[in-house]
Amino acid sequence: MGSRQITEKALTMLRSLPRVSLGNIRDNPGYKKNPKRGRGQHGGDKHGAGNKGSGQRQNYMRLGYETGNNPFYLRMPHEHYYKGHHLRRQYPPFSLHELQLIIDKDRLDISKPIDIASIVKSGMYNFTPDEKHFGINLTDVGADCFAAKINIEVQWASEQVIAAIEKMGGVITTAYYDPHSLYLLRDPKKFFESGQSIPRRMIPPPDAIEYYTSAKSRGYLADPEEISKDRLRLAQKYGYELHVLEDDPNYEMLCERKDPRQIFYGLEPGWVINLKDQCILKPKDSELQRFFAS
Amino acid sequence: MATVWRSQSAFARIFAGKSGLILNNTADLGAKLNPASISTLKKHYSNYAHSPFVRKIQEQYEFEIIKNPPEWEYVQRLLPFESIPKITPKAAYPSGWIPQKEEASNLPYFIERNKNQDLSIYLDISYRGMRKISKIKKIEGDIWLMNDDVKDFLKKRYKRYIETRVHELGKFIEVKGDYVNALNEWAYSKGF
Amino acid sequence: MTSILIKALKSIYISVPSQNAKFATSAICSNTLSITNKEWKYPPTFTKPREVWIENLDTIEEKKLGLFELHPTVYGATPRIDIIHRNVIWQRKYRWVSWAHTKTRAEVRGGGRKPWPQKGLGKARHGSIRSPLFRGGGVIHGPRAGNTHFFMLPFHLRLYGLTSTLSAKLAQDDLHVVKDLDIPSDNSEYLAELILSRNWGPSVLIVDDTDYAPRNITVATGNLPHVNLMPVYGLNVYSMLKHDTLILTQSAAEKIEDRILQLLHSDTRKQQAKFKLDQV
């Protein structure tokens, strides 16, 4: 009993006690709360819930609803930015600090290009395409401490984030994925096991075209010439020396991009992945090839 | 026409007047199904249960099966980790997070990391933010000595007495107030 | 009279094997001890690994064949009796469908007619003789058949239930590791004598890593209702507590350890998700 090890002490105590069996175990006292309330001092009362209605029935109305009044948030007709808020694309945030953290913890391999699949695989980020989540918004929290040279593809990024990544000699692309592709990226194993052929990635909807074709946001549909011009512009604006990608030893990795129709790195649309036999089925039929190439 | 069908099958009776709606089925309704006709003619059966088994399916499209393809590396990259990867020591950790040090286990007490390799120090906020309690969990070894050390550290730092509570069987220490950052710093300095 | 006899018998039963056990521990054959240094996949950090003897089953008297290390996270965890208890409750409840049934006033036979007129008799007004107020009437809020008590214990409570029970068993000397399950004869008397001489308590649960046990032990345990065989995948808290002693083969002990450690060191969001009936 002289031990000051907690577990050791507990286990030594057990040695001198009767055998732990079905008959002599019990839960901690106070574990179970009686759901009923007795007839005490306020036994016949309403238990603080008031009489009838919302209070008693625990009927919480949706946020902003004013029981039939024209709600406050709709009274100002000029607040047009609320229009269609429930239909808009959402990008759940992921900060540069968190990105650095998963790199430090070896959850992310920075010798390979990073995309949403590898970030979700790390277990530190999750999103639900059915809640209109369209991927990662890389935020600038921790931009000062970020120190990794990476080739990353996210769905939304601000100028500061782009600058923070390019300052370290890295490359960032913003790319659009339709919800169906995002399901595949979230759980590729489940998709491969389903035995379906990898579909094509869809093009962005009209209101997203501008973002994904502009060089300023490093869109995946932007002109590479424009992007390299903008890299220089951003370096001058934020005052850092731009790394020359061509001289980099990891030039090939840094230049690896997906095709606008491609969902996974290195795997083309139309292929079927067989995880059990470790083989890939590639379509030979010209009709199929034409379909997946379009 | 309708009367003839009604006599032949009960199923047809339902659709007798609506043959225009079910174009594919109209030819089948009166005719009896014999296997020969199934194999030769392409038919559409209205009911899954009544349609015969398909014997031989000719694959519509041809696929080239490649075993051990060079692209398999890309597939492996996508598969989930079997277990959380081990941390390889690095020169610097820019995120501010520090892995557990070897020498930490030489102390008389110990704080175990969780499986994400984070320190198990948490802030418990209750009573609508009125009560804040910092909690050090997963303690092993001499918890009372650790309690003294933690108290000393906080007293030196904040120049006042800070209340703590030790739960030996639960293996945790609770510190009254929000001292999570200070406790993290202390734990990192000890190597936990 | 009989109680005195029983007491006397009990004292004999207790005293004799303990002498045997003492004898066995003193006679360790030191030459052939195999002490293996384990390659830990998840090395124990602060707590020391727990050491157990590897025993044999092929002779009645105990031989110590080697020394074996077990991971403290699995075999030396804090024995949380409350978690063990919740596991037992869960195992009792998830398979329990209660068939207790009572009839409502609509289901009890008869009672369609108004027993007496509403007015004029000076009696209380009633519409049916099967009303809950009547003797032989229906029951209000009584139990209805087919009531399932299924629920799922959170994943990590199930895991810690296993580690707590294994640790408690090991701490109380109720867990023994044997090299293999080879016994010289298929006679159940041999096994009964072995269990008695080693003071393993009457009921014994033997766990192997495969579900094909050797023939001799299968036949020998066939006649003994209190000695049971189980593969590793069937290991559970309830059975471990129901039997006095738990016998693990060396490979089974390793397999349990590997499996639990692997689950404790991997991403278990899928296992932790809310249980759905169609998920399996």
From TrEMBL, chain A:
Chain coiled-coil ranges:
none
Task: Name the protein family.
Answer: Belongs to the universal ribosomal protein uL15 family.
Q: Which Pfam families match?
A: Ribosomal_L27A (PF00828)
| Stretches assigned to the Large ribosomal subunit protein uL15/eL18 domain | 94-173
Q: Which UniProt keywords apply?
A: Ribonucleoprotein, Ribosomal protein
Q: Which GO terms describe its cellular component?
A: mitochondrial large ribosomal subunit
Key word Membrane present in the record?
Answer: no
Taxonomic source organism: Leptosia nina
Q: SUPFAM superfamilies, per this entry? A: Ribosomal proteins L15p and L18e (SSF52080)
* InterPro entries linked: Ribosomal_uL15, Ribosomal_uL15/eL18, Ribosomal_uL15/eL18_sf, Ribosomal_uL15_bac-type
Stretches the record annotates as Disordered? 21-57
| Name by which UniProt lists this protein | Large ribosomal subunit protein uL15m
Keyword Cytoplasm applies: no
Q: Cite a single GO MF annotation.
A: structural constituent of ribosome
Q: Which GO biological-process labels does this protein carry?
A: translation
From TrEMBL, chain B:
Q: Where is the signal peptide?
A: none
Q: Out of the domains of life, which is the source?
A: Eukaryota
Query: Any idea which GO molecular function terms this record carries?
Result: structural constituent of ribosome
The record, for Gene3D superfamilies, names: SUI1-like domain
Q: Which Pfam families match?
A: Img2
| Entry's Gene Ontology cellular component terms | mitochondrial large ribosomal subunit
The UniProt entry's sequence similarity note says: Belongs to the mitochondrion-specific ribosomal protein mL49 family.
What name does UniProt use for this protein? Large ribosomal subunit protein mL49
What species is given as this protein's source?
Leptosia nina
From TrEMBL, chain C:
Gene Ontology MF term list: structural constituent of ribosome
Q: What is its main location?
A: mitochondrion
Q: Where in the cell is it found?
A: Mitochondrion
Check the record and name the InterPro entries matching this protein.
Ribosomal_uL4 (IPR002136), Ribosomal_uL4-like (IPR013005), Ribosomal_uL4_dom_sf (IPR023574)
This protein's GO cellular component annotations are: mitochondrial inner membrane; ribonucleoprotein complex; ribosome
Q: What's the domain of life for this entry? A: Eukaryota
Supply the alphabetized keyword list. Mitochondrion, Ribonucleoprotein, Ribosomal protein
A Gene Ontology biological process term:
translation
> Is Ribosomal protein one of the keywords UniProt gives this record?
yes
Q: Which HAMAP family match?
A: Ribosomal_uL4_B
Q: Which PANTHER family match?
A: 50S RIBOSOMAL PROTEIN L4, LARGE RIBOSOMAL SUBUNIT PROTEIN UL4M
UniProt family annotation: Belongs to the universal ribosomal protein uL4 family.
From the Swiss-Prot or TrEMBL record, give the protein name.
Large ribosomal subunit protein uL4m
Q: What organism does the record attribute this protein to?
A: Leptosia nina
